[in-house]
Amino acid sequence: MIRKRAWLTGAAISGTLAITSFGGSVLAADVAEPPGCTPAVSGFNGKLEGGAGYSETDEVDGDVAWEAGGSLSFPLGCMFGLQLDVGANDRYDNTQFGGIAHLFMRDPESYLLGVTGGVIDGEDATLYPVGPEAELYLGNVSLEAWGGYLHVDGDDDSFDTGFVIADAAFYLTDDFRVSVGGKIVDDFEALRAGFEYQFSGTPMSLYAKAEYGDDEAFNILGGLKFYFGGEDKSLIRRHREDDPRNRTLDLFASGVGKSHHKGYGGDGSDGAPDGNTQPPTP
User: Fold this and answer.
1) pTM across the whole model
2) Are 262 and 153 in contact (CB under 8 A)?
């Protein structure tokens, strides 16, 4: 039931935002590329990011956490773009790495709409997420969501479930973003918040983020992002004209819940007897 709820929630939130985004774009203009249209990706560009911090749960003692990732974005004509993400992460005594691909259409003035999926491999299971990704731009506010289907290939069990990651971001200035959001990945639920500040006149930014969820899972990380390719621009323009979020790191952040399913899979049990336990022989 929880897995069905996760799938439905992911589909509902990301689907609603996708329909809203696309509907707004249709009201604003034809889907066909108009002469001189604003490109979905301003040009070949990318970013590198890395950070470190602290993580703990009610079952895992506090320890150092870290993450590192990179993204490359390519324009596909005017209205479409492709981004490839890679990332590695260690939290809650679990190291994971993987890759994600985004294929999307975007109007930098109003919306992004696409399909995003990939594979993430950890110590307890391998994840195969895929689903719609959408962003809606409302002045200095951005609404962002990714959700859908998730196949979990655990050490002892494989199953199908769902996920959703959603955030609301506010740009206090063109170079300073704060955000709040939440996520559901199978039966793990969490709230999260973060900020990013780009140093004026440089392609470098400082970021920090924190998350608190089931099993008293808590992590906080801070680090730097370095943007390359394309012209110098403000942070809000980078986010809307260049590369979307590195989603490998977003999904990594919820790779906990070992009491739920031993970290994205495990034996898939809920702790209840399986009905096959035999009494000890005398």
Assistant:
1) 0.80
2) no
